[in-house]
Amino acid sequence: MIYFDNSATTKIDPAVLATYDQVAQNIWGNPSSLHKMGDRAYQLLTSSRKQIASLLGAKQDEIFFTSGGTESNNTAIKGTAIQKREFGKHIITSSVEHASVANAFNALENLGYRVTRLPVDKEGRVNVNDLRNALDTDTTLVSIMGVNNEIGTIQPIEAISDLLTNYPTIQFHVDNVQALGKNIWPRVFTPRVDLSSLSAHKFHAPRGIGILYKKEGKMLSPLHDGGGQEKGLRSGTENLPAIAAMAKAMRLVLTDEADKANHEAAIKRKIVDYLQDKPGIKIFSPVSDDFTPHILCFALEGIRGETLVHTLEEHDIYTSTTSACASTKTDEASTLVSMHVDDKIATSAIRLSFDESNTIEEADEFIAVFDKIYQHFAKINHLGE
Ligand SMILES: Cc1ncc(COP(=O)(O)O)c(C=O)c1O
Hints:
Aspartate Aminotransferase, domain 1
């Protein structure tokens, strides 16, 4: 089996699962309870928060636990829009965001907010000048992802941060769900970033747990009202086993991060070298410092992405179209559509996404299987003749 769908989700690490299990069985008090069992749970909650803060280069009080990337994004975006509605109702994002950002903006637009969606270039990247031109005195929020989940573009978060330094009241949110552990953290988590989202299941921890980073002093309206957990920002009893497991997974994924990223880049390079210059093939994720090493999106024009994914699956190779790579549904506004890629090519795209446990041998095996599919297809369609 070859699993090349790590951007969709990753396999839980056995050591992380062991932590989850241990906490669930032994430290099951409610962190808000006044007795010893509650205190023990609270201590673990605090130490997990501390560890995560230190790994991310943040303060303990800036880490808020949520149910994942979707909730973190919604809290950051809607929480800012509602909190700052007296000051302005103009909010800015890009045209290539994950649905949890894009649809949060759509929902706010339906409530009367003015939304600017920045266009992208041929590589799926926003232009800082477009952002500069879009800013006005009503702008309260800019939300741009760190790494695109469909083709792996790294957005110019540092340049955007420089620009936004002159606009200190605008809250800057970065969806970093695809960015952790890829050796690019300082590029996507600058001191100017006010809010950032992470999701644990993208780095070998359980589903349904994530992080919202909120810079000290920044204000958000909570979306959940209740018992006031997470300093009132996210009420609800904390999912302590998952939080402790996430802290462990984060420590593991960030250990030898550069080596792991280089390894993923080598797998990507190997497959790109094979695909490069083949008639009918279009690569959207070049091997470059401006793209994450773990995502490779490409199209074999003429075969629908779904068909290719299922053909590979017959060989026990798991890949993805992503909603993404291939969707032309306007409500999902895929990255490729925003890049003005021809519809026929966009619907042919598939995404391979790697992690540190993938091997060069798997890349070789993928190439061997894909080449058979490609040669058959090329013959029928007279490609390269
Ligand atoms: C860029 C990005 N943001 C947000 C999410 C949503 O995260 P979650 O599945 O934890 O809700 C994903 C998941 O694929 C993602 O890739």
